[in-house]
Amino acid sequence: MDRIEELETALTIASATADDLGVDDARRLTGPGLLWDRPGAVIDVFCEDAKRDLIAQLWERHSRRVLDALGWPKEDRIVRQFQGGVNLAISAPMDQLYSSIFAAQTAWHFCAAELLGQTPGDFATMIADVKTVMMKEANPALIALIAAAQSRSVDVLCDDDEISIGHGTGSQVWPVDSLPSPDQVDWAALHDVPIAFVTGTNGKTTTTRLCAAIARVAGMTAGLTSTDFVRVGDDILDHGDYSGPGGARMLLRDPRLEVAILEVARGGILRRGLPSRRARVAVVTNVANDHLGQYGVNTVPDLAQAKFAVRRTLSEDGVLVLNADDPFVVAEADRVDATIWWFSLDHNAPKIKTSRADSIPCAYLLDGMLVFFDGKTEHLLTSVRDVPITMNGAAKYNVSNALAALCVGKALNVDERFVRAGLAEFKPNARDNPGRCNEFSYNGARVFVDFAHNPHSIAAVCDAMSAIPAKRRFIMLSHAGDRSDQDIHDVTLTAMKFKPDVVVAVEMEGYLRGRKLGEIPTLIRRAAIDAGLRSDSVLSAGSPTEAARIILDQLQPGDLALLLVLSERDAVFELLENQP
Question: What predicted TM-score, i.e. pTM, was given to this entire model?
Answer without folding.
Answer: 0.90
